[in-house]
Specification:
350 residues, 14 helices, mainly alpha, disordered N terminus, disordered C terminus, 72% helix
Length: 350
Amino acid sequence: MPLSRAPAATRLPPTAYLATGAVFHYLGPSLAVLLFAHVPVLGVAWLRIATAAAVFAAWRRPWRRTPAWGMAAVQWEAVIALGVVLAAMNTVFYLAVDRLPLSTVGAIEFLGVIALAAGAARTRRNLLALGLAVAGVLLLTDVRLSGEPLGFVFAFANCLLFTTYVVLGHRIARGAGAHVGGTRIQGDGTRTHGDGTGGAAPPAVDRLATAMIAAAVAVTPLGLGPAAKAFTHPMWLLAGAGVGICSSVIPYVTDQLAMARLPRATFAMMLSLLPAMATVIGAVVLAQVPTPQDLAGIALVTAGVAVHQDQQPHQGRRAGTDTKTRADAETRTRAATEGNTPDDVTRTRA
């Protein structure tokens, strides 16, 4: 069977997708802050999620591919669960930043991904990388332990939900381990072996689109009413659309493209690039000159990402070696059974 060509999405390194998502990750909140003066927080959350769902629906139209999906129940559960998590996470995030500084909410949010990265840091090198990244984030984030207690409740709830998003998002990107007709579904939605139908499983972005539509359904009872006053102000609606695209379309798509190629712990550790990118954006776009502390934080985060070693390629090489060893053993066994030499069997297969 001929090997399929690598998809275009794999031609860029995963860090390129993370950096792209980081740029838009911090453009969205800036638009949301402008809306807070005119639209209630829950209304802004609804505008963000509903706009993202509309964009995904128009772009991907996932319902047209539903008959060919053949997703296992575990995949459907992951998709719907991700939708509910997205709805809750975006809502409590805005409720938190409405009461606490954005930097404080961001620092608390990072606690969950630190736990994910630390849980898989099996080597001293990766522990060092994690320590450098955490130190850099602490330097970059201006954590203030003051504010409304309810704000901290929302911030820690957002931390838990963001960690759950990383776990579920990674399952979605990798196909949730589903099999269709004995065929393994890969993270980019392709099948490793044909099953005679010629069909294709849904790409990860289509699964994300379905999750975002589910998120819009989940948040509508809570956010539609508060968002109603924006319907009579085109500029407010336009700002809401900008929030949805910048915060829930582009970053989530780039997350999926990165998650499909990175182990979960590696992706979690590389999220430390987010506060570093925020400082760079502030310097380039807003002319906010970084302080020596900011520059030190960027250097530590960059060093942590550089030091971190992804163990997955080594595992892949070992798996490939094991597969070749088993194939050679099968060749020798077949040769002994048929009275041929291994070279004869190899030439027959060729």
